[in-house]
Amino acid sequence: MSLTPRTEKKGERLGQRERYYAGARAALPFALATGVLGVSFGVLAGSLGWGALAAIVSSVVICSGSAQFAVAAVLGSGGGPFAAIVAAILLNARFGPMGVAIGPYLKGGPLRRALEGQTVLDASWALASRGGGRFDREFMIGATVPQVVAWLGGTAVGVLGGDFVGDPERLGLDAIFPAFFLVLLMEELRGGRSAITVALIATALALLLVPHVPPGVPVIAACAAALIGLRRTS
Amino acid sequence: MTTLWLTILAVALANAAIKASGPVLVGGRELPPRANAVISLLAPALLAALVVTETFGEDGALVLDEKALGVGVAAVALLLRAPVLVAVFLAALTAALARAFS
Q: pTM of the full predicted structure?
């Protein structure tokens, strides 16, 4: 009698674990792209005289390509630390709304939620999106693991062995990331007409804003396109 | 050097705070339907903006370069129902070839 619920529980746990693995597998192509990006970051940081330790530590504690490239770009072009910090914050402000969206699906009290929130990466978040505002927590956390490993490994390879790697742009590797985001976008567009409308508005907003505002702001402003969701329910 | 380390530390803390804010503020609460309607459209909005900025954005300007050509080829391949990895490979190959011959 007591066996049935226990087996069910075990099955549930197994299902949960399988979702971690499924997320990790789904993220492997992104991890490849992230690794390449990590190498470029390592090469860039090395060329700016950061030293291997600072480059690798930054990938561990910040663990965000957009923020780290921003810091390297601003400091590298003679900008001050304040400008670098603001640029990084603007670029990563998108994780605010993304965290609100996935928040109800994370577990535990405030501290645990704060920690689980750290696992949100662009690709993990999008891969774990199940439509209708639902998210798969285990899938997202699983998807983050190979990307983090690739980012750290890539940074180390780039900063320690940059001379042997060559120029990632010559190999066209910088086209990989936007192409992957395009793949995820096309998946989302199957969600229906409102998804397509929102994507078109967001595209227009981003194109209009890129030349006029600091990097990062167009992406946050484009989130406003999602507000047409209000119209649908009113 | 100290400036670099302080900047790295500050960005790490700010980044962690941004990522923590959403989950902590929302908690385990179910969001009202209107908020959910907006959130369900966040993914297409964010992804469209990321595609635009990563493809055409370069130091605060719009540029149409070999990378954009590569992403365009990937878009066509995806519309023709090519497998994901083929489309992404074509993006890199196109950008690399375009750079080699430009």
A: 0.83
Q: How many other CB atoms are there within 10 angstroms of residue A33's CB atom?
A: 25
Contact residues on chain B for A120, CB-CB shorter than 8 A? 19
Q: Which residue has the tokens 């810091």?
A: A71
Query: Is the pLDDT assigned to residue A2 strictly greater than 70?
Result: no
Using CA atoms, how far residue B21 sits from A46, A80, A83, B14, B68, in Å, is 33, 27, 22, 10, 34
Residue with tokens 């011959």: B101
With beta carbons under 8 A apart, name residues in chain A contacting B98: 172
Q: Which chain B residue has its CA at the smallest distance from A218's CA?
A: B49
A174-229: pLDDT as tens digits: 888 899 889 989 988 987 899 999 999 999 999 999 999 888 889 889 989 999 88
Size (chain B), residues? 102
- A5: which 2 tokens? 């619920």
Is the Cβ–Cβ distance between A20 and A127 less than 8 Å? no
Grouping H, G, I as helix, E, B as strand and the rest as coil, residue A136 is coil
The distance of Cα A156 from the centroid of its chain, to the nearest Å, equals 20
Q: In B, which residues are within 8 Å of A141 by CB distance?
A: none
Nearest residue, CB atoms, A223 vs list B46, B87, B100: B46
- Measured between alpha carbons, how far is B88 from B84 in angstroms, rounded to an integer? 6
Q: Which distant-in-sequence residues (6+ apart) come within 8 Å of A195 by Cβ?
A: A188, A189, B41, B44
ipTM: 0.89
**And the tokens for A98?**
């993304």
DSSP state of A175: G
pLDDT value of residue A166: 67
Q: What is the mean pLDDT of each run of 10 residues along chain B (102 residues)?
A: 92 97 88 84 91 89 94 96 91 94 84
Which tokens is A74 given?
A: 């601003």
3-state secondary structure of A135: strand
Name the token pair of A70.
């921003």
The string of DSSP codes covering B55-88 is: HHEETTEE---HHHHHHHHHHHHHHTT--HHHHH
